[in-house]
Design a protein that fits this description.
alpha+beta, DNA Primase, Chain A, Dna Topoisomerase Vi A Subunit, Chain: A, domain 2, five-stranded antiparallel β-sheet, four-stranded antiparallel β-sheet, 22% strand
Length: 290
């Protein structure tokens, strides 16, 4: 459908695999020879003459075409970010900024956050967490909660909590980002001591909602040299009691030589919030006698 629309609307358009080649549709750019390509699989265009990427939303506005507003296309140039990453040393993010202005919530993403005990508007205002319904995985669009990873007030990559996919729960953009030494939430706290460390973001958001300092390590991979300086003194550990969670408990206790507080919960912190059992959750925290 998209290919047919663009082939009909674009000037001198030709299809080459997943790419459409045509004259640049920018009304301010006089282009007589084909200098524009559009990748129909990744839904992003590039003008080789102007040297910039063009989102589907911008392209459709130039073509005066009313696309389905239930599927809001974004302005994120992940291809540009990937190229930048390849040319920079790991963890240097000075020139990397992702724009999330094109994302917005729909009924599915809003309902998902409400069911997990959160106010979507509050999450956006505090942490720039929003929603989308155009995450392209396995040749299909999915809804997702978009959680920006911010360093020095710049969004350097996105954590997408996918809704409805059979296998993929989290999808990261760009994929070239290494998560081994990443800690989400540090940007929002001043004092790093006595933090509650979680695996997943929704448990961290639960503790934040309750007024506690919390971060998450985005999985079970821990880089000792990078993580210790970020975590602070004697952290409170709150991981799942599954294989990955137990691995995290053991690794952190080894790194901190047993000087940790282990908050062993049979359920996720977020489940206590969903079930309105916050008092039970806080009682378990108070019993640690911190």
């Amino acid at each position: 459908m998209l290919k047919k629309i663009l082939l009909n609307k674009l000037g001198n358009a030709k299809l080459n695999g997943d790419e459409i080649i045509s004259c640049c549709p920018n009304p301010e750019h006089e282009d007589n020879s084909p200098s524009f390509t559009f990748n129909t699989k990744k839904c992003i265009g590039y003008c080789h003459s102007e040297g910039r990427y063009i989102s589907l939303k911008e392209l459709m506005s130039w073509l005066d075409f009313e696309y389905d507003r239930n599927c809001v296309y974004n302005n994120i140039n992940t291809l540009d970010i990937k190229k930048t990453l390849k040319n920079k040393k790991k963890n240097e993010f000075n020139n990397i900024t992702i724009d999330i202005n094109g994302f917005e919530h729909n009924n599915i993403t809003t309902d998902y956050l409400i069911k997990r005990g959160f106010n979507p508007e509050e999450l956006y205002l505090k942490y720039k967490i929003t929603g989308r319904n155009n995450l392209f995985i396995d040749n299909k669009f999915y809804n997702a909660i978009v959680i920006p990873y911010i360093v020095n007030k710049k969004i350097i990559f996105l954590i997408n909590r996918v809704i409805g996919h059979e296998y993929t729960r989290y999808y990261y953009e760009p994929k070239s980002i290494s998560l081994k030494d990443k800690v989400w939430g540090l940007e929002y706290i001043d004092d790093i001591d006595n933090m509650i460390i979680c695996e997943g973001i929704f448990n961290t958001l639960t503790w934040m909602k309750l007024g506690y300092k919390s971060v998450c390590i985005l999985g079970s991979k821990i880089n000792k040299n990078k993580i210790v300086g970020k975590i602070g003194h004697r952290p409170i550990l709150n991981f799942d009691l599954d294989n990955a969670g137990i691995k995290c408990y053991n690794e952190f206790n080894r790194i901190f030589k047993g000087k940790t507080y282990n908050l062993l919960l049979k359920k996720d912190a977020n489940e206590y919030l969903i079930e309105n059992k916050i008092e039970l959750l806080l009682n378990k925290l108070f019993k640690l006698n911190i």
